[in-house]
Design a protein that fits this description.
- The structure holds 2 protein chains of 2 kinds.
- Chain A is of the alpha+beta class.
- Helices cover 27% and strands 23% of the residues of chain A.
- Among the domains of chain A are: 151 residues, Aldehyde oxidase/xanthine dehydrogenase, molybdopterin binding domain (Aldehyde Oxidoreductase, domain 4, 2-Layer Sandwich); 229 residues, Aldehyde Oxidoreductase, domain 4, CATH 3.30.365.10.
- In chain A, strands 3-5-1-12-9-10-11-21 form an 8-stranded mixed sheet, with helices on both faces.
- In chain A, α11 packs parallel to α20 and α18 packs across α20.
- Chain A is globular.
- Chain B is of the alpha+beta class.
- Chain B has 2 domains: 77 residues, Beta-grasp domain (Ubiquitin-like (UB roll)); 80 residues, Orthogonal Bundle (DNA polymerase, domain 1), CATH 1.10.150.
- Chain B has a 5-stranded mixed sheet, with helices on one face.
- In chain B, α2 crosses α5.
- The termini of chain B are far apart.
- The chains are: A alpha+beta, B alpha+beta.
- The interface between A and B is large, with 73 and 66 residues.
């Protein structure tokens, strides 16, 4: 095992970039942190009811008739709602576009408004376990489940389709005929045309190439698997509705509920505090269960709790993607043309399919393919009767990386080049030259740490271990996507700093705490900005509850960008704090503010620094009022390009059993500025559980005969445990620099992005046979080796 | 799951179920406070308010509900409450805040391993599993830690930090038998 190599900051700072515990470490380690399921116990909400929703046993079906009378008569049942009830059937059709990925939008401005394919509690079940038809509220969950069994439903079972290629064929079962008569999502003003990138002339580019390779890659719908299952409690009393939930977007949830239920915004109060993992799940604060739980509360006059079981929490997933890719280059490795075609299985509802399939690749074209003269990309989202696909840690990036890293590796082999040299020769952002400085350092460091030169051999030609085992190394790289300019569409980020008379600080930087570590980043940023007060991070309180009635608007916990976006505002607000304290001090120190300064908690006259007064005394001897600065700032739109990320993997493949074992992963992130080193490393290391899981073990399996998913549980859906994970070497780098005080870039999501492709390239290096589809389970390896 | 129509044979009224939780005995009357099918996790969370343990999978796959039963780590979602009759249960609330395992989880920031927790949802389960492991094996090797904690899932993926924390805790832990 290699000894850890702590990073060296480019600019040494007092707090930013520290290796230290999280601000909530002791509360979490001692189990004192309360998640929504912990807060909403019946002992705390005595009249509370439990809701359960009817789920479709069929992959595709329509409710012909429904009789809930027996359920209504069951003792303990307090409210039943069905799709026939006017308060349900009058709800507007909706979609998961209740956000533009990063911020609050209204019904009229929501994304994918052309794909409003979801009815809240409708009569059309589009996938097995779809929430349809009826919902009940009862004194216990058991009674609610019993009531569901008493509802008599007459189903019209419809033909179904699971495979997107089959779904596109004429005669295939059509899922949402009014939106997509052939299951193929129509082009959308947000996502753009089917051919959404068409730079230069791709065909001409291929004709000019000396070498062309073509490949395919298939990414599946892994699921986020947050341990904290969806949960909410809604209390709708007289004209006011209060929601406690583990939604990670309080403001967006409020807008959604307000507009769907026709309530003024100030009559909807959404409270979110700690959330046990997010990872993109239910990415939009739009979950239909908020609405039917609310209606049950209104009908029963009682607070109603709705929570998913673990099996029900298999509810969101990564957008699956079948990509074909083609790349051509001159003999010297200069790429002349690239072409990618994607087919995305949307599942039952369109959700953010086109975000994954178009937005992410478009961004990549700008920031990584800027120097390739000819690029063409086209994509199709296709409805099927599978689990709807959504966002998961990196929208469409993991999926695109799987083909991108594939064709780079193949082309390098065909040209007889090292893929590192091929990458440096071609990829960079549009505002920078080649080779890209960030990519050069990222790949160089990765090569060094994995032992690239020593371990990389001709495909399948390495030494054999234990008679049947072969080893290989591979890597994949990707442009990051969370530089400040890419967050411009969030609009203003607002925070409030309160410095009390004793110099203790309250940092109101609302965001739902989902574990990312942004809370610690921002407290460190605040300590850094207020260092002149002579305070430490422990003197700062960060309120962890977002309450739409009392908090500033929350900064949505997406794009791994909250970590620095709020700190950038805090840095500016701190200057204002200083100014206000100096104004307070003028009378006491008999000097103009401009002649005064503050250092280490003391105010002094610049002309006579020897004589000073503690800042606390300035407050205590003065008006005793706290200094409060509220400030908003739009993200800096300066086009700084982006840094790069990469993963290097070493694997061992047992050619007798087909088992792949990852021996080592090197995870590299050029962060711009490391805001909080321990948190950043935790993201780098932590992301590998998802990355390795997606690459090797995690997979939702359907019964092809019935269309019913078979493994909505963690016994059969295999998430890597501690015993399954390899040694991970996290490398934090600071090469690129963004705009602003820190010039940082989000890293969390992207730590997952390159893992599957790095592992696949390493497998190829080990055995000399390419496998196009993840997860790489042993049977796929044996099949590729001609042994099965 | 409630089975209302199942007839139970008439029997002599059984004495209440007695369980010691975090040092205090609790009595539960059968049929009123608990049913035969009541799980230990339900009893601890919903009846007694010990919410440190989490019910995430409710089928023994994730370890988030781990508590100690007579010093051994058990999955409280897979134990019936009646099985704990006469036994001692320790939940994370029963540990002092300066418990070496809690401290080690909170303090882990050694470069190269990340933190031992992020969202914190699985953490109480890991802490209690680690307590159980250290009770049985006060000085585990890294391989033994990995094996011992492989029944727990951390989706934030803090396994490296957790393993490091358990190693550090084991350096500070006084084996059970040597306690006063």
């Amino acid at each position: 095992m290699t000894p850890p190599r702590p990073y060296t900051p480019r600019v040494p700072r007092k707090f930013i970039g520290a290796y230290r515990p999280r601000i909530d470490a002791i509360e979490k380690a001692s189990g004192k942190v309360q998640f929504v399921d912990d807060i909403t116990l019946k002992s705390r909400f005595p009249g509370m009811l439990y809701a359960k929703v009817l789920r479709s046993p069929y992959a595709h079906a329509r409710i012909k008739s429904l009789d809930a009378s027996k359920a209504e008569q069951l003792p303990g049942v307090k409210a039943v709602l069905t799709c026939k009830d006017p308060e349900v059937s009058s709800l507007k059709p909706t979609s998961a576009g209740w956000t533009d990925g990063v911020d609050t939008v209204s019904y009229d401005r929501m994304m994918w408004r052309h794909f409003r394919d979801r009815r809240v509690l409708g009569d059309h079940a589009c996938w097995a376990t779809d929430e349809v038809g009826a919902v009940v509220a009862a004194e216990t969950e058991q009674i609610a489940e019993e009531a569901l069994r008493l509802i008599k439903v007459e189903w019209e079972v419809l033909p179904f389709v699971l495979d997107p290629i089959e779904a596109m064929k004429p005669g295939a079962p059509v899922i949402h005929p009014e939106i997509a008569p052939r299951n193929i999502l129509p082009k959308d003003p947000v996502g753009g045309a089917d051919i959404f990138v068409d730079k230069g002339n791709a065909e001409k580019g291929f004709a000019e190439a000396d070498a062309v390779v073509e490949a395919k890659s298939v990414h599946h719908n892994a699921t986020q698997s947050s341990l904290d299952n969806w949960c909410c409690l809604v209390d709708w009393k007289s004209d006011k509705l209060t929601v406690l939930s583990n939604s990670y977007e309080a403001d967006q949830s409020r807008m959604h509920i307000s507009q769907m239920l026709g309530l003024p915004l100030n009559k909807v109060r959404v409270i979110s505090s700690y959330v046990g993992g997010q990872f993109g799940r239910g990415d939009t604060g739009d979950q239909p269960f908020f609405l039917f739980t609310a209606l049950l509360s209104k009908k029963s006059g009682r607070p109603v709790k709705f929570r998913h079981s673990r099996r029900e929490s298999f509810h969101d997933s990564r957008q699956p993607a079948i990509y074909t890719g083609k790349v051509g280059a001159k003999k010297d490795g200069t790429i002349t043309s690239m072409y990618f075609k994607g087919i995305g299985n949307s599942g039952a509802y369109a959700d953010h399919t086109m975000f994954a399939m178009k937005f992410a690749p478009t961004e990549i074209t700008e920031v990584a393919l800027a120097h390739i003269p000819n690029v063409r990309m086209e994509t199709y989202g296709v409805y099927t009767n599978k689990l709807p696909a959504c966002m998961m840690r990196g929208v469409g990036n993991s999926q695109f990386n799987l083909i991108f890293g594939h064709v780079v590796d193949m082309l390098a082999e065909k040209l007889g080049m090292d893929p590192i040299d091929l990458a440096l020769k071609n990829f960079g952002h549009e505002w920078g030259g080649l080779p890209d400085k960030s990519l050069t350092v990222v790949l160089g460091e990765g090569a060094k740490r994995i032992g690239w030169k020593e371990k990389r051999h001709k495909p399948g030609k390495g030494p054999v271990f234990d008679r049947t085992k072969k080893r290989g190394v591979g890597f994949s790289f990707h442009p990051a996507w969370h530089a400040e300019w890419q967050e411009a569409r969030r609009g203003e980020i607002r925070i409030r700093l309160t410095v009390n008379p004793d110099c203790s600080v309250v940092l109101d930087a609302p965001t739902v705490e989902t574990g990312t570590g942004s809370n610690t980043c921002n407290v460190l940023g605040c300590a850094e900005a207020l260092a002149f007060l002579g305070i430490s991070a422990e003197d700062i309180v960060w309120p962890h509850t977002v309450d739409t009635e009392t908090s500033l608007k929350d900064c949505v916990q997406t794009d791994s960008a909250v970590s620095y976006l709020q700190s950038e505002v805090v840095a500016r607000a701190a200057l204002e704090v200083k100014k206000l304290i100096l104004e307070k001090a003028t009378g006491l120190l008999k000097a103009k503010p401009e002649d005064l300064d503050i250092l280490d908690g003391r105010v002094f006259r610049k002309a006579a620094p020897g004589k000073s007064m503690a800042v606390k005394d300035v407050f205590m001897k003065g008006d005793m009022l706290p200094v409060v600065v509220e400030m908003g700032r739009e993200p800096n739109a300066e086009r700084t390009g982006v840094p790069y990320i990469a993963n290097f993997a070493e694997v061992e493949v047992d050619t007798a059993t087909g088992r792949v074992q990852v021996l080592k992963l090197v995870v590299l992130n050029d962060c711009g500025t490391v805001m909080y080193a321990s948190g950043a490393e935790a993201q780098q290391i932590g992301g590998q559980v998802t990355g390795v899981g997606e690459a090797l073990t995690e997979e939702i399996i359907y019964d092809e005969i019935t269309g019913v998913p078979l493994n909505f549980n963690w016994l059969d859906y295999k998430i890597p445990t501690m015993a399954d994970m390899p040694e991970i070497d996290p490398a934090l780098l600071e090469v690129w620099r963004g705009a602003g005080e820190y010039g940082a870039c989000g890293i969390g999501e992207g730590t997952v992005t390159c893992t599957p492709r790095a592992v696949l390239n390493a497998i190829y290096n080990a055995i000399g046979v390419r496998i196009d589809e993840i997860p790489v389970k042993p049977e796929k390896v044996l099949k590729a080796l001609g042994k099965a | 799951m409630a089975k209302k129509n199942v007839k139970r044979p008439r029997e002599v009224k059984k004495p209440p179920v007695r369980i010691m939780v975090n040092g205090a005995w609790h009595e539960f009357e059968r049929g009123r406070d608990l049913e035969p099918e009541t799980t230990l996790s339900f009893l601890l969370r919903e009846k007694l308010g010990y919410t440190g343990l989490k019910v995430s999978c409710d089928e023994g796959a994730c370890g988030a509900c781990t508590v100690l039963l007579d010093g051994r780590a058990v999955l409280s979602c897979m134990k019936l409450a009646v099985q704990a009759d006469g036994h001692e249960i320790l939940t994370i609330e029963g540990l002092p805040e300066d418990d070496p395992v809690i401290r080690a989880f909170a303090d882990q920031c050694e470069p190269g391993y990340g933190t031992a927790l992020q969202c914190g949802f699985c953490t109480p389960g890991f802490v209690m599993t680690a307590k159980g492991l250290l009770n049985e094996n006060p000085k585990p090797t890294l391989a033994e830690i990995k094996e011992g904690l492989s029944g727990n899932i951390c989706r934030c993926g803090c396994y490296a930090g957790i393993a490091r924390a358990v190693q550090h805790a084991s350096e500070d832990t006084v084996p059970e038998g040597e306690k006063k």
